[in-house]
Amino acid sequence: MLSADADVQADVDSVMRKYDRESNTRIWEGKPKIAITVILAAFSLWCIYVTLFATFLEEIRLTSFMGLIILMGFLIYPSKKGDQKVNHMPISDIIFMIVGVGSFFYFTFNVNQIINQGTRFTWFQIVIGILAILALIEVTRRCVGLPILIVAGVFIVYALAYGLTNPEFFGRLRYLVRNLFYTKEGIFSTPVNVCSKYIVVFIIFGAFLERTGISNFFIDLANCIAGRFAGGPAKVSVISSALCGMVSGSSVGNTVTTGSVTIPMMKKTGYKPEFAGAVEATSSTGGQIMPPIMGAAAFLMADFVGVPYSSIIGRAILPAILYFAGIFISVHLEAKKLDLHGMPKEQLPKARKLVKKIYLLLPLIMLVVWVSGNFMTMQKAASLAIVLTVVVSLFNKDNRITPGKILEALEAGGKSAITVGAACGVAGIISGTITMTGLANDIINAIVSVAGDRLIIALILTMLCCIVLGMGVPTTANYCIMAATTAPILIRMGVPVMAAHFFVFYFGIVADITPPVALAAYAGSAIAKSNPMKTAFNASKLAVAAFIVPYMFCFNPAMLLIDTTAIQVVQIAITAFIGIFALAAALEGYCFANMNAVIRIVIAAGGLLLIHPALATDLVGLIIVFVSLGFQYVLSKKRKAAAQ
Q: Which part of the chain is the TRAP C4-dicarboxylate transport system permease DctM subunit domain (predicted)?
């Protein structure tokens, strides 16, 4: 049994190293490992202290935060994959680390002088800025990957070659570095500011919450709810991934963590490997849009849009429910088509045992109450939630958070912050470059001129931009890029600010399951041992709601509770649900019985009409869908009678 568990864990680690750059870390043992652990844990404690109590200049907080991110980044991540040498760090990495950390801390310890300089910077200071930017880029390459750096590189090259007005190259270089490093328009702009102030504390909270065994609780809860029904394991995957994704903040990480349990179960039940991997990838990716955490992007969105955090999570509930409803319907129809059954009752967890562990949800519930009720700041609420998590764990004899686990959680929080911090820093470079060159306005004008007054054209072009820019980029950095580059396009077209930001956030996230760079789908395929591209296309089909719902709340912002009434919300929810059901059935080609091509086209058309926010289209759509379903039901009865 232990050997089997070890084999499963080895497979999980292998998949993580292949598709998740965060898992490609140096191997430290003995005293060096202790030293690294202390550094990571101290960083987590430092972040909590700074966000709660520090009164020094914001520039000190931001520069020291990024300096420590660079330090930890070089200590944890090797320059290339597959470096398995124990306690080994090349001298070149040590030099690069010292230079990079020194560049950021030069700003920290000379902050007053730099602020008072205005725009008068020496070439020595410009070189310091260049070294800092290069160090950030290198750490990002190691722990995040190339896609986000390719985007940043394109914008930097554009700025130096064309976007800036200074006729001298070195004049343009000087201006670019000064703005990207010594102001709050680049690296130290909103993404890093929010990351250092809010996101890191929530990441640490997630690390503590995981140590309580809440992921296993979520999987058992999902089994208890849906395991006994047709195709139960797939439905368990949908529910558990939605719940676990709230905490994990990583599509790939969530896919591998829960998928190592759910994908083999789905295959054993009778689902094809490509479908099983796709279900897990799609559900895990959806965890990033699931309130209340939303992959930590909810805090960034609140800052970008200028509304309370509670407003963001409240508006995100209905679209998230529709997203998972679409997946749930698809897996149910697939199970019925294949005549799959649920799990045996004796293999399912007992409800009475789960009820006894319901207290594990208390920290998450109280966090939402404290923040949404404006009882305290987000960072204070997260800090208290960490303390509450430790207290709650004491009642769980299987997963008590001991002093050793506290150190482990602080270490895990610090390590997870590296990727998010580095990605947010590069996202700041992208948004800063776009702003100072005026490229954002050029992109907006180009798309608006192509679209004219046709919003649907602007939405399609913006969707394509989001999917391309979001490929291989972590959730938080992903949203930062979208908010700076694509959201203003829709706002110019008259879409409400909130709806525009939700639209670009959704399509940035689905890049994780959209070919050709569908990292979450590829991770799922590795566990399912299926064809990666087929798995990615299956995942895109399952995520039909993610491709439709954003259009719904742009054409009808009432779905995001914008300028609406309770009756309108109920009407929208019902018609949208029926529309999603119709589309899922059309894509699966099954409802009561196998559908022919004509019926699939007709019922898909009815589903799309229900998505359009007008009473006439809703009525026509309802008639088409119910007549089609009625026809399918009668047809299924005739086939069963003929078979007998």
A: 131-563
- Distances from the Cα of 539 to the Cα of 156, 472, 510, 625, angstroms: 34, 16, 10, 24
| Whole-number pLDDT of residue 55 | 84
For residue 522, what are the β-bridge partners? none
Q: What is the DSSP string of 178-204?
A: HHHHSSTTTTTSHHHHHIIIIIHHHHH
Vertex 292 angle, CA 287 and 297, to 5°:
70
Per-residue pLDDT of 236-276, as tens digits, reads 878 877 777 666 656 777 787 778 778 888 888 788 889 88
Kind of pairing between the strands at 590-591 and 593-594: antiparallel
Question: Which of 137, 160, 194 is the last residue before a domain boundary?
Answer: 194
**Would the pLDDT of 2 be above 50?**
no
CB-side exposure of 256: number of CA atoms within 13 Å? 25
CA atoms of 5 and 206, how far apart (whole Å): 24
**pTM passes above 0.85:** no
Show which of 149, 164, 194 is a domain's final residue. 194
Give the amino acid at 11: D
- Print the domain residue range for 608: 565-644
Whether 338 is covered by a domain: the verdict is no
pLDDT (0 to 100) of residue 249: 59
642 belongs to a structural domain: yes
In a domain, 31, yes or no: yes
Residue 470 lies in a domain: no
**Omega into 273 within 30° of 0, i.e. cis?**
no
Average of per-residue pLDDT across 229-241: 78
d(CA 138, CA 131): 10
Total of domains in the chain: 2
